[in-house]
Design a protein that fits this description.
Elements lengths: L5 H16 L13 H15 L9 H5 L1
Helix pairs in contact: 1-2
Length: 64
């Protein structure tokens, strides 16, 4: 069974395009240049839209 839905893939692809154009911003308003951060933002946006995406890992939150 697929872990991510098709709409989630499109949302992540959109975030990657915005990163390449230089228009993707993080929560603090800073420009995003990291691919990993762009993917994380795309997945977060997909979750908010209700796409099929597994819950966010708590490991990233513990590191901060």
């Amino acid at each position: 069974m697929a872990r991510y839905g098709a709409s989630a893939s499109k949302t992540v692809a959109s975030a990657m395009r915005r990163r390449k154009r230089g228009t993707l911003r993080s929560g603090s308003g800073a420009r995003v240049t990291s691919r990993r951060q762009a993917v994380a933002i795309g997945l977060s946006e997909a979750r908010r839209k209700g796409a099929k995406v597994p819950p966010a890992s708590r490991a990233g939150a513990k590191k901060r």
